[in-house]
From TrEMBL, chain A:
PTM sites of type 4-aspartylphosphate: D52
Protein name: Response regulator
Origin: domain of life: Bacteria
Provenance organism: Streptomyces ossamyceticus
Gene3D superfamilies in the cross-refs: 3.40.50.2300
SMART domains per the UniProt record, alphabetical: REC (SM00448)
């Protein structure tokens, strides 16, 4: 079981991701923006972070950069969630230090597989 | 002089109007929030069931679908906006389950019926749902809505037609570009682009339309969707269309397609004596095409009197790679005090600092 932090301003996506990952046996904390994600990270670092790229206020890219800049979270696995129309953001995401990305619309099964794959890579 | 009483009265009147408007906005917002909360409260008990359906393995979906199909009408009305939104957010088995759910509840048939509703909100909403469901049988009804009296409904219908993926909608979408109830070219272009290769044949027919905007959009979409089989039609548009905007888009399309057949017409399009805009776009397209044979004709235009043409030509040469770069260096070396050398030097310097602009933008509206 891994601790996963999910940050997405879309309540439907947030609930879906939390439900699927909980169903897959993970412990999920879901928040609705980048600032809340950073607060949750300070309270207790998870094993993996899922970030929506476009969030009001602090974007997923900003959060990712902050994570990489801090020594204690520099190697924390990060997966970005992006819409198909924003696939150009993916390049920026990798530059910001993300490990993988998921494009909306996505299948819950694919999401679970990606999360597990990134977690396995991080364990090695 | 204006009497003080009049000024005071006017100010009080404006204040009263401002307060009344603020109150109205607050009441409307409050009512919306209440309605949303009530809907969320009603839908809450079955929201978990919806998530379970979306995440369930195939063998468990049947039973969950049965349960969701039995949800009472009031609860379904509250949940349905979430289900409709989810259609655009999930893919694979989860999406198939949602489409099946709509079928089981008869909601697709209801949406088709709602396309004829007197309420513009219902018509627009129905179009949106049918688009999300990619419900092809609704194509004829959606096409009729492209001429709806309500602008938002027309936009919803155009978007929905893009999602249904039925190429039969192409002539209707193209026709919706003009007339008193025209649909935004941006929305129509996006819808036509979504239809992909299935739309090519009908788009090519659109190149014969008497309306320049229709021809411009048709040729643009052919380029964006990679219609290499339609290169001859696009070449014809570049050579023969009387409208500058159509020729511009045809040149851009040929650059995007990257077919060798585009070389000769693009070279013809950059020759002096023609309007600058198509020349600029054609020069940029030659850079995209990457054909070495374009090097000579492009280099000859480095000293063009139009600085935009000359600048685009220089950047296009750079994009051709070593032969184009050699031509630029040749211009600097052999014609040192000319306009051509200045253009070449500028572009080579830009490239040296990694700042070369590759995009050629020419905005012309019809």
């Amino acid at each position: 079981m891994a601790r996963v932090l999910v940050a997405d301003d879309d309540a439907d996506i947030r609930d879906l991701v939390a439900f699927k990952l909980t169903q897959s046996g993970h412990q999920v904390t879901a928040v609705e923006d980048g600032m809340a994600a950073l607060r949750a990270l300070r309270e207790g670092p998870p094993d993996l972070v899922l970030l929506d790229i476009r969030m009001p206020g602090m974007s997923g890219l900003d959060v990712c950069r902050e994570l990489r800049a801090a020594q204690e979270t520099a190697s924390l696995p990060v997966i970005l969630i992006t819409a198909r129309s924003q696939e150009g953001d993916v390049e920026l995401g990798f530059s910001a230090g993300a490990d993988d990305y998921i494009v909306k619309p996505f299948s819950p099964r694919e999401l679970s597989s990606r999360v597990n794959a990134v977690l396995s890579r991080a364990e090695r | 002089m204006i009497p003080l009483d009049f000024i005071t009265g006017a100010l009080l009147y404006l204040l009263a109007v401002g307060l009344a408007l603020s109150l109205l906005v607050t009441v409307i917002r409050g009512a919306r929030t209440l309605r949303r909360r009530r809907r969320e409260r009603v839908a809450a008990p079955v929201r978990g069931l919806l998530l379970e359906l979306l995440c369930a393995p195939e063998e468990e979906q049947g039973e969950l679908l049965e349960r969701m199909a039995r949800i009472d009408r009031r609860t379904w009305t509250a949940l349905e906006p979430t289900v409709a939104a989810m259609l655009g957010k999930v893919s694979g088995r989860a999406r198939t389950a949602l489409v099946r759910l709509y079928e089981m509840r008869g909601s697709a048939a209801q949406a088709v019926a709602d396309l004829g509703s007197r309420s513009a909100v219902r018509r627009g909403r129905a179009a949106q749902v049918l688009g999300q469901l990619r419900h092809r049988p609704a194509t004829p009804s959606l096409c009729r809505l492209l001429d709806d009296r309500d602008r938002e409904v027309r936009l919803a219908a155009a978007r929905a037609l893009g999602r249904t993926g039925d190429p039969a909608a192409v002539p209707h979408l193209l026709r919706s570009l003009h007339g008193p109830r025209a649909v935004s070219p941006k929305i129509v272009t996006a819808a036509l682009t979504s239809l992909g290769a299935d739309a090519w044949h009908r788009l090519a027919a659109g190149l014969q339309d008497p309306a320049p905007l229709v021809r411009a959009v048709a040729v643009e979409v052919l380029g964006v969707t990679g219609a290499i089989a339609r290169t001859p039609d696009i070449v014809r548009a570049l050579r023969e269309d009387p409208e500058t905007e159509v020729r511009i888009r045809a040149a851009r399309a040929l650059g995007r397609l990257g077919m060798p057949d585009g070389l000769e017409p693009l070279l013809a399009a950059i020759r002096p004596g023609q309007p600058a805009a198509p020349r600029i776009v054609a020069a940029g397209a030659l850079g995209s095409l990457g054909a070495e044979a374009a090097t000579g004709p492009l280099a000859a235009l480095l000293g063009d009197p139009d600085p935009h043409v000359a600048g685009t030509v220089a950047r296009a040469l750079l994009r051709l790679g070593p032969p184009g770069e050699a031509a630029l260096r040749g211009a600097v070396r052999d014609r040192p005090d000319t306009r051509a050398a200045a253009q070449a030097r500028a572009v080579l310097a830009e490239a040296a600092v990694g700042g070369t602009r590759h995009d050629v933008l020419v905005e012309v509206s019809l």
